[in-house]
Amino acid sequence: MSKVLLHCLLTASIIIWKQLTYIQAHKLADGAENLRNGSLTTLYQNLKYTNVVLEQPVFLQGKTNGVQSKNNDYKYRYAYVTPCSDPSVSTMMDTLDGLLAARVFAKSGNSTAAWEIVRGIFSAQGENGFIPKYRYAYSNGTLSSESDWLAGSSYPNYPIFGTPPADYLPADSINAKGSGMLAATPLLSSIVLDIFYLSPQLDQDEDALEDVTFYLYKWHEFLHEKRSGQYNIIHPWESMMQMDSPIWQVVLADVIDLVNQSHYHKDIPQEVKNADDYPGDEVYLAELYLLDCLANVNGGVDDAHLNKVCPFGMVDIGFASILYQADLDLLQISDMLDDMNKRNYLSGSQRDHITSWITQSSDTLGNMWHTSAYIPTYTSLTNSNSSVKVDVPVADNFLPLWRGWDGYVETKSNEDTHVGGFQDVEDGERLDLLSFQMLEGRDSESMHAFGCGSSLMLRSYSCNYDADAANNPSVISPLLNYFVYNGLEVNGALSISHYIRNTTLNILCGLIPNSDKSSVDEDCPASLSFVKRYDAKTGDARISKGDEVCGTTSTVAAAVSYDMLVKDELYSYDPGIPIASVWVAVLIVAELIVAAIIMISCVLLSVNLFRRVRHDDEGQLLKMIKESRFEDRWGMRNDEAGLIYGEEYNAFDISSRAPPTDDLGARTPELLSRSNPSAPPSRGDELSLTADDNPGADEPVSWTEMARTYVDWINPFGGGGREYTGYVRQSEHARIV
Can you give the pLDDT at residue 347? Predict the structure, then answer.
């Protein structure tokens, strides 16, 4: 009991300590403080709430093993994060933006907002587990207009995606809209695990983790059953690569031919054409052609063969890398729920499925490595059953470094902070090769050289790749740098990871990258612009024409700047005892009550025993003296006892062993001493055994006097008495003591 009580107190202390870490923010230098405050301000400006009654997803309705929230308040409130602060996008959330913002909110101490964003994402989940890339919500009680693009912006609106098959529709398809069949980046499980680690790990955090786990399982089930094999993305917008990356000109070549042959046309708003990442009419029309094709897909088409209906399917390296780490993190979440003794942890068969998914994702990444680089593949229109390598050296091909693979969880919980699993691939040679390519200059003439003699990292494609600079500018993406930096940091490539981090933070602050004259800590200004893209040669921000508001308040840029600036604490999870905190309090009170009862009982018992011993001591001694087997119990013969207590105890020869008397017949100490040299000397009148102390000379000495003498001179209980050596006499009953 005492061990359990001590553990409970320690758990409470840890919780208090964790809360204090959020109350007391890390002390930063003035410039870094400006960057942190600016990024948080931008993120909170882009955080929106809606009050809508959410329906339970179809795949959970009527099931007892489905997720049941312990806090029904979230059914009437969820959060979402807009791409920027412009009112034109106030009804929209890119799932990737929302997840990155949620992680920052959890790190800065607001895990409640983080969980509300996650619930907002799941509110658009379909029956088959699908989660859309874009999620459209109510704003002031109405959905945005029915046009194909959000008015005044370059972002698409939900009508452009058409009506997907029924199992893709959000559970609340009236109040929430999605992006048709275009799926979100599979980052969700990894960010959910991060949010829990970064939270205070209170009961509400454990409950939130439990609530979303089955939703996560269904999401991964969709990705592995519907997006496995020859492709994992069905449209370029599902990728994290830049929209104007030169890779799209290659992989969409067949679709571009179809557009030209069919004279396909669609009016494109000027706001879209003014966007900094606009890839040109040819590529953009091909992307719209694919959207129209997907919008006409009915429920009878097998999801695993969409590329046979719509002429595109690609194995995207970034998508595969993030999915692999997410599979590992989902398994970690399941283990934690099992450890917490939660009711809704995943079953054994479901855990087996996750293990098989991890193997599948690992094999997918392994098959994409070719000699010196990761190379994506796509299916061609002429032969949808074969895969074609896309040997376009883009920086997104470094994303397999993300998180260090299966070593990430151990990395964040151990003292050794550089144990990422990727550093063990080919004994670290692959990590060294990829790191070298990031620094390799143009003079090497390598197709995978990204250094290009510039202090800026990491440019969007190789400096030796011949691309159309007008439609495919070389840019620096803070988002891509964030993922690569994290992977390099975890795997121990510290020099290059810190270089990428410092470069990214410097250009976000408008400073000269990696200059000795300025630094983020001291020189980052209070007035900041958070831009998604920067020129790879000059480091200047690239902002769309007429889009200054949205272009300078990017959620992605604000989130990654905060995350790279403020270090994570070492990840740890204290499983504690398998009992809710409210029962911990009850247990503590019960233990205190039991302890108090035991203490009072012991005190009362002790007092009672002392009183009883004091009261019965004399009677007990007399009883022992009277006992017939006195000589046997104490090892003393009657002839010896008679010398002390009188002749009445001498059962053998009273006259011969009676002590000497004076003329009057009285026994005196002097005579006793002369007749028995071993007898103790007189101790005074108080303990005298003479007849003068007794009213009747012929009466024996009283039992009380004998008992007192016995205690003082023999004292079998030890202490207080004088040693009695006995009386030596030559008789058949005498013995030496």
Answer: 85
Question: With contact defined as beta carbons under 8 Å apart, do 89 and 83 qualify?
Answer: yes
Enter the tokens of residue 544. 């769309």
- Of the given ranges (152-161, 398-407, 642-651, 676-685), which has the lowest mean pLDDT? 676-685
CB 46 within 8 A of CB 84: yes
Tokens 């099992």 sit at which residue? 338
Report the alpha-carbon distance of residue 732 to residue 30 in Å, rounded.
Answer: 108
Which pLDDT belongs to residue 9?
43
d(CA 49, CA 164): 26
DSSP codes joined into one string, 273-317: HTSTT---HHHHHHHHHHHHHHHT--TTS-GGGGGGTSS--EE-H
Q: Is 75 exposed, middle or buried, given 0-12, 13-18 or 19+ CB atoms closer than 10 A?
A: middle
Q: Are 340 and 575 in contact (CB under 8 A)?
A: yes
63 to 209, 212, 346, 348, 478: CA distances (angstroms): 19, 15, 14, 18, 43
On the 0-12 / 13-18 / 19+ scale of CB atoms within 10 A, 537 is middle
If pLDDT is split at 50, 70 and 90, which confidence band does 203 have? confident
Distances (CA, A) of 501 to 242, 395, 425, 450, 458: 20, 16, 24, 16, 10
The alpha carbon dihedral of 391, 397, 401, 402 has a sign of negative
Predicted confidence band at 301 (pLDDT cuts at 50, 70, 90)?
confident
Model confidence over 652-708: pLDDT tens digits? 444 444 455 554 444 555 544 444 444 444 444 444 444 444 444 455 555 556 656
C-beta neighbour count of 21 within 10 angstroms: 12
Sequence-distant (6+) residues with CB within 8 A of 420 are 403, 404, 405, 407, 408, 411, 487, 490, 491, 492
Give the containing element (helix H, strand E) for 97. helix 95-107
Distance CA 222, CA 216 (A): 10
Mean pLDDT, to the nearest integer, of 144-162? 86
Is residue 510 within 8 Å of 543, Cβ to Cβ?
no
**Residue predicted with more confidence, 104 or 137:** 104
- Percent helix / strand / coil, the chain, rounded to 5: 50, 5, 40
The token pair at 282 is 């040819």
Distance of CA 621 to CAs 78, 182, 626, 630, Å?
Answer: 84, 98, 9, 11
Q: Provide the pLDDT for residue 67.
A: 37
Determine the pLDDT at residue 428.
78
* 502 pLDDT above the threshold of 50: yes
- Residue 377's DSSP bridge partners are 315, 389
Residue 47 CA to residue 555 CA, distance in Å, equals 9
Helices assigned H by DSSP within 426-516: 429-439, 478-490, 494-508
Tell me: pLDDT of 376 over 70.
Answer: yes
pLDDT tier for residue 22 given thresholds of 50, 70 and 90 = very low
Q: How many residues does the chain have?
A: 737
The dihedrals phi and psi of 598, each to the nearest 5 degrees, come to -65, -40
Calculate ∠ Cα 69-71-75, nearest 5°.
Answer: 75
Contacts for 304 with CB less than 8 Å, ≥ 6 apart: 225, 226, 228, 229
3-state secondary structure of 679: coil
* Distance between CA atoms of residues 187 and 327, nearest Å: 10
Cα dist. 220→29, 167, 185, 353, 564 in Å?
42, 15, 11, 10, 28
CA–CA distance, 630 with 710 (Å, rounded to integer): 13
Per-residue confidence (pLDDT) for residue 518, from 0 to 100: 74
* 12 CA to centre of own chain: 17
Name the residue among 295, 121, 165, 311 with its Cα closest to residue 234.
311
Contacts of 228 (CB under 8 A, 6+ apart): 304, 360
Distance CA 348, CA 343 (A): 13
Name the most confidently modeled range: 375-379, 569-573, 725-729.
375-379
Distances (CA, A) of 151 to 46, 56, 88, 138, 668: 18, 31, 6, 16, 130
